[in-house]
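so ive been stuck on this for like two days lol. basically i have the seq below and the ligand is magnesium ion, smiles is in there too. i just want the complex predicted, nothing fancy, no docking runs or whatever. if the output looks off dont worry ill sanity check it later, just need somthing to start from for the group meeting slides
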Amino acid sequence: MNFQRINALTKKELKKTFREPAILFVIFLFPLVFVLTFGASFGGLGGSQPVYNIGVVNMDSGGLSQAFIEALSNTTLLNVHVYADNQTAQNDLSQGKIQAAIIIPADFSQSLASYYAAPNKPSSWVNATVLLYLDKGSVVATQAVPPIIQNVLAAFLNQKAPPSPVNVQIASLIETKPVSAFEFMAPGMFTFASIFLIMMVAQSFTQDRENGMLKRIRTTPITPAEFMASQVLAYMLIAPNSSGACFRCCLFAGL
Amino acid sequence: MGEFAIVMENVVKCFEDVVAVDGVSLKVAQGELFGLLGPNGAGKTTTVNMLCGLLKPTSGFVSVGGYDVQKENVKVKGLIGVCPQETAVYPYLTGAENVELFGNLYALDEDTLRYRRDMLLEKLGLTHDAHRKVEKYSGGMKRRLSIVLALIHNPQIIFLDEPTVGMDPQSRRAVWDFMRELKKEGKTIFLTTHYMEEAESLCDRVGIIDHGRLIALDTPKNMISQNRVGNLEEVFIKLTGRRIREEI
Ligand SMILES: Nc1ncnc2c1ncn2[C@@H]1O[C@H](COP(=O)(O)OP(=O)(O)OP(=O)(O)O)[C@@H](O)[C@H]1O
Ligand SMILES: [Mg+2]
């Protein structure tokens, strides 16, 4: 393997790709068309905001917890059902009737009261933990519900930034790591990229064969392995650009 | 075998339906400028392709630079420079980029590559167009660039398959002068052509090939005097009863 040869051929392949308008079109416009068609056919474009059903179990007898539940109900994003005990809420959650269950702890009102008394003195606060159970089957709910709750809570506390006496803790069994839009779309993009890669390599091959370049290259000391390496390298560099373009289109289209 | 740059012994190449090269034997000495002359379809390109390892002879033996082309392909490739008949240059690269790419394929170091690039582009009159894309070149310019690509690594043995086709007389003469210069440097040149005057004025020895058979092999002078005619054109007519069709 001689890197100079591989490098030279890889560069040539990149230049070819980025200099030929037809290929550029394929790389950057095809993804756009692809995404728009995809988006339109799955109806994800321009849809209205969904409403999440959440269950609330109130262990606190204080008045502040009632006010908090009201604040949650006032959000257009949430449909709040109050449950008497944790068990029924859990049952409904596992049956998919609600997408999340919130457990308000007994010391919730007390905690808020301590905060209102001295908002700037965290050492005097009584800390409380709101438990949140999430439907592990719904990627959207796991992503959307916690920030909504956080926001309602922050608004309720009149608070602009942490720290807060009340923290929201996700108690469900699943490990919820943030699923980014990228991860959400990655499988599709990889499929797209690999199909694209095959197309491009085949196209580049036949083109060079037609104009006799491949034959000419074969009279130089480059080995088939070096030649293949250069092709693979070039398209490994090009494909992410294409799927990157695809991804940006997705974001742009709001998918 | 050391003194011969190119040896062909009883070489036959058959394609499915035609015998393209039919028992050709010839030897080209080191430093010789050899011309293979023949009409369209005579088997010139097929011969060159076998000599540079692109085609495998159906039978017979081929060696270049003392190496068996079939067995020591890699060594042969390092030794030869090939200018194919069809103008093979990358249209989407500039002239200079084409030259650099080929220099890198021969793993030249940067200084040598830059020096030889500038020198060859200058010699073939392409310096001013070096940074234009090749797709904007005229046919003759592409042919000249194609010759530069074949010579970038300063090869000892050079194959030029109809190098001057489509060139104006001035460019053609420049290429001829350049070939004479290469010969002075001691390079072996294997040239194919169907221009009689090219073969006559340039080559040390000429082989005339027709229907895959080598029908004459001598210096142009000897050929002309032995056949008691005025020029190579008449030699060809006398040997085959036909004229070589001149295109363009
Ligand atoms: N790949 C191939 N498959 C089948 N037949 C071929 C192939 N290449 C060449 N031939 C045949 O071999 C014969 C010799 O062709 P070749 O290209 O060597 O001729 P040439 O002397 O170079 O002619 P020209 O002056 O037109 O370039 C022709 O009859 C051609 O049809
Ligand atoms: Mg030919």
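The pocket of adenosine-5'-triphosphate (ligand 1) is lined by residues B 15, 18, 20, 38, 40-46, 85, 194 (CB under 6 Å). Strands of chain A lie at 52-58, 78-83, 100-104, 128-134, 166-170.
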